[in-house]
From TrEMBL:
Regions of compositional bias (Low complexity) in chain numbering: 1-21
InterPro entries in the record: Acetyltransf_17, Acetyltransferase_Eis, Acyl_CoA_acyltransferase, Eis_dom, SCP2_sterol-bd_dom_sf
Region described as Disordered: 1-33
Full protein name: GNAT family N-acetyltransferase
Occurrences of domain Eis-like acetyltransferase (ranges): 254-364
Family matches, as SUPFAM superfamilies: Acyl-CoA N-acyltransferases (Nat) (SSF55729), SCP-like (SSF55718)
Organism: Micrococcus lylae
Coiled-coil region: none
Domain annotation Enhanced intracellular survival protein: ranges: 367-469
């Protein structure tokens, strides 16, 4: 199940098929009722109550939440994972409770959710997303989308997504977010990729030279169970500084603490924390890492989480990892796509990028709330008109964006104004561009952004440029 991995993620997206467009949005499509489409296949969609922890704070018991436990089993099977049982299932329900996750299940008519697994699963919940350093907006997170093999291509995904996005709009959510296992599905539903990520490894045999001054702080190896609160506080600090990062789900705290219930119950996965303290002794960064075992050659540690609140902490932690005794290779499970690792090494070719992927997908539901809700780099100013097409209506329209003194203002122009727009694009492209992690100029080259006023794409990239790399710190 994705919740048990470093990258925690995976969702597919679907048509909203909704009539509940935001007031003022034109052209809301009403392409039929997803419920009716399900009914035609003898199916129905149900929202399960979120599990709750008992008053003593212990995990909920699967026996008290049979429908949610069966739902979790279906999710695990959908990702070809082992099905949790006993304490592991209770723990999973407890993490769902902590994040107030909502489960949407699709069931065969007549099936009791407390007795049968759903044939479709979908999880959503209200969270927050950093959109500029220090600024968060409410965000609707989506995960754990699966459809059982015997029920594909009957509109189950479409129905679940339609219900979810309709509810997100009703709750006033400006944006929805997901990560994907397959990327071909999401654009049609208005999701666009806003940042990429990569996995990389560094050969650390011998002394690896770093460029620039040595960090003045120190790093100590710690037991994750003893320093989890410091790690968590650092993660929150960094998350607030990182556009493209939602509040971390509870799963990550449990993983970093090495307390995920597993087959070798109680022993954990053998994670360590390297904790960076600055010259004044303040914790400013942490890495969570695990040795891959003596059977792996060359001897390797895998860095599951890397959090540094300032550049010195980042440098100090890189140095620490490069210097680990007996270790010949360091793997970084998830890095921003910014090349910082190559930049800090004297020999950049020690870095091998082993994977590179489209990471966070966003779906703008409220154009003014999104464009006015983020900050703009000070000194950048200008105005542009954007003709945005959204077949589901939420973002459809012609919008004038004016940026000055670090703030954006959005005005909706009258119907017909799209002819005068500087740029024309689908909501999926606007959603990807919004935080400044991908380029409108690239979109023009690819033909996904139409430039009607020469230079408009460069101007949009300038206006939307981000003060910090757009990066998803923790999958969900
Ligand atoms: C991907 C998955 C959720 C699709 O569910 P589904 O109920 O079959 O999808 P729907 O019938 O609602 O299809 C909705 C639309 O998406 C398209 N679509 C669905 N799966 C697709 C895929 N894998 N690739 C491309 N398009 C896809 C459908 O063709 C349909 O398109 P349309 O708008 O032209 O009609 C399902 O196949 C699944 O569970 N796969 C395994 C787990 C997984 O991959 N989960 C997603 C993790 S990212």
């Amino acid at each position: 199940m994705p919740q048990h991995t470093d990258t925690v993620g995976g969702v597919a997206a679907a048509d909203t098929t909704t009539t509940a467009a935001r007031p003022g949005a034109s052209g809301a499509s009403a392409v039929g009722s997803p419920q009716a489409a399900l009914a035609a296949h003898g199916l129905r969609l149900e929202v399960l109550p979120t599990p709750v922890r008992p008053a003593d704070g212990s995990d909920p018991k699967a026996a008290d939440f049979p429908a949610q436990a069966l739902f979790t089993r279906a999710v695990e099977k959908g990702f070809y994972e082992k099905v949790p049982d006993g304490r592991a299932m209770d723990q999973s329900l407890g993490m769902d409770a902590d994040d107030a996750k909502r489960s949407l299940g699709v069931y065969a008519d007549g099936d009791d959710p407390a007795a049968r697994e759903p044939v479709g699963t979908f999880v959503d919940w209200a969270s927050t997303l950093t959109v500029s350093p220090g600024i968060e907006l409410p965000a609707w997170l989506i995960s754990n989308v699966t459809v059982s093999p015997g029920h594909r291509r009957r509109g189950i995904l479409r129905a679940m997504m339609g219900r979810s996005l309709t509810d997100a709009v009703a709750a006033g959510m400006p944006v929805a977010a997901l990560t994907v296992s397959e990327s071909a599905i999401y654009g049609r539903f208005g999701f666009g990729v806003c940042c990429h990520a990569r996995r990389a490894q560094v050969r650390t045999t011998g002394h690896v030279q770093m460029r620039g001054p040595a960090a003045t702080g120190t790093v100590t190896r710690e037991d994750p169970r003893e320093v989890i609160d410091q790690v968590d506080a650092l993660q929150r600090e960094l998350q607030l500084l990182t556009p493209g990062s939602p509040r971390r789900p509870q799963t990550h705290r449990v993983m970093w603490k090495d307390a995920l219930a597993s087959e070798n119950d109680g022993k954990g996965e053998g994670s360590f924390v390297g904790l960076y303290r600055d010259a004044e002794g303040r914790a400013r960064g942490a890495v969570v890492y695990r040795f891959k075992g003596w059977e792996t050659e060359p001897a390797t540690v895998r860095v599951q989480a890397f959090m540094a609140a300032d550049p010195e902490a980042w440098r100090g932690l890189v140095r620490y990892l490069l210097d680990l005794d007996l270790i010949e290779r360091v793997e970084f499970a998830r890095l921003p796509d910014d090349g910082a690792l190559e930049a800090v090494l004297e020999n950049a070719r020690l870095v091998t990028v082993t994977d590179h992927w489209d990471d966070l997908y966003l779906r703008i539901l409220d154009v003014p709330a999104c464009l006015e809700g983020r900050a703009y780099v000070s000194g950048v100013a200008g105005g542009l008109t954007l003709a945005v097409s959204d077949r589901h209506g939420f973002a459809d329209g012609t919008w004038r964006l004016t940026v000055a003194e670090g703030r954006g203002q959005v005005e909706r122009l009258a119907d017909g104004a799209q002819e005068q727009a500087d740029l024309a694009l689908d909501v999926a492209e606007l959603s990807g561009l919004w935080l400044g992690g991908v380029s409108a100029v690239t979109g023009v080259r690819a033909g996904t952004v139409r430039e009607r006023t020469p230079g408009a794409a460069v101007l949009l990239d300038t206006l939307l440029s981000s003060a910090a790399p757009v990066h998803l710190l923790t999958g969900f």
